[in-house]
Write a structure and sequence with these properties.
The complex is a heterodimer of chains A (117) and B (113).
Chain A: E1 4-7, E2 10-13, E3 19-25, E4 32-38, E5 44-51, E6 57-58, E7 67-73, E8 76-81, E9 90-97, E10 107-108, E11 112-116
Parallel strand pairs in A: 2-11
Antiparallel strand pairs in A: 1-3, 3-8, 4-5, 4-9, 5-6, 7-8, 9-10, 9-11
Chain B: E1 4-5, E2 10-14, E3 19-25, E4 32-38, E5 45-51, E6 56-59, E7 62-67, E8 72-77, E9 86-93, E10 102-103, E11 107-112
Parallel strand pairs in B: 2-11
Antiparallel strand pairs in B: 1-3, 3-8, 4-5, 4-9, 6-7, 7-8, 9-10, 9-11
The chains are: A mainly beta (117), B mainly beta (113).
């Protein structure tokens, strides 16, 4: 399958700082990228969907001003957690697919573990 | 409201035996279902899928069964191998509504040698 990378894999930051997480599709052009959040022993919760060149669509309950998503190119999307607080500590996973691709062509990154102190 | 549920958080099976992972959903609009396998600190990887027009799909050791009337699907792994030990997520989507995936909470499978 296709490869999706995330950077960093792990980040620890102080409360109040902002953290940027990158998601890259390495061998295909991803017209659509998704950002998920996973709390320990819980499901993957979709946070937002972004299409290249347009604003992200956020799921209900997700603060768009807190979780800034930029999908500037067909191979890169970034998630910035602004003014991070301890409750933002979580495992963040991105996925990418082509716009017309079926569900199986949604490939997931390895995730980023964020710990806010 | 959790639309996709995996009621068993964990399952332990002996190597060579069958593993059965279950998943229930509440939204009757879902028409496509998938199973993913996830290792720690890695993203989920696609395993097998099934359309709502079918009741069974088989791929090697993996078979997915769908019971639409009961809104229930299951993943059978036989024979189970230690390398199958991972967290398994079921997911559902509506194919005419953007193919967004809704995930269950996952089941941790442990296959003992």
């Amino acid at each position: 399958g296709a490869v999706v990378s995330q950077h960093p894999s792990r980040v620890i930051c102080k409360s109040g700082t902002s953290v940027k997480i990158e998601c890259r599709s390495l061998d295909f052009q991803a017209t659509t990228m998704f950002w998920y959040r996973q709390f320990p022993k819980q499901s993957l919760m979709l946070m937002a969907t972004s299409n290249e060149g347009s604003k992200a669509t956020y799921e209900q309950g997700v603060e768009k001003d807190k979780f800034l998503i930029n999908h500037a190119s067909l191979t890169l999307s970034t998630l910035t957690v602004t003014s991070a607080h301890p409750e933002d500590s979580s495992f963040y996973i991105c996925s990418a697919r082509t716009n017309t691709g079926p569900e199986e062509t949604q490939y997931f990154g390895p995730g980023t573990r964020l710990l806010v102190l | 409201d959790q639309q996709v549920k995996q009621n068993s958080p964990s399952l332990s099976v002996q190597e060579g035996r069958i593993s059965i992972l279950n998943c229930d959903y509440t939204n009757s609009m879902f028409d496509y279902f998938l199973w993913y396998k996830k290792y720690p600190a890695e993203g989920p990887t696609f395993l097998i899928s099934i359309s709502s027009i079918k009741d069974k799909n088989e791929d090697g050791r993996f078979t997915v069964f769908l019971n639409k009337s009961a809104k229930h699907l299951s993943l059978h792994i036989v024979p189970s191998q230690p390398g199958d030990s991972a967290v398994y997520f079921c997911a559902a989507s509506r194919r005419n509504a953007g193919n967004m995936l809704t995930f269950g909470g996952g089941t941790r499978l442990m296959v003992k040698p």
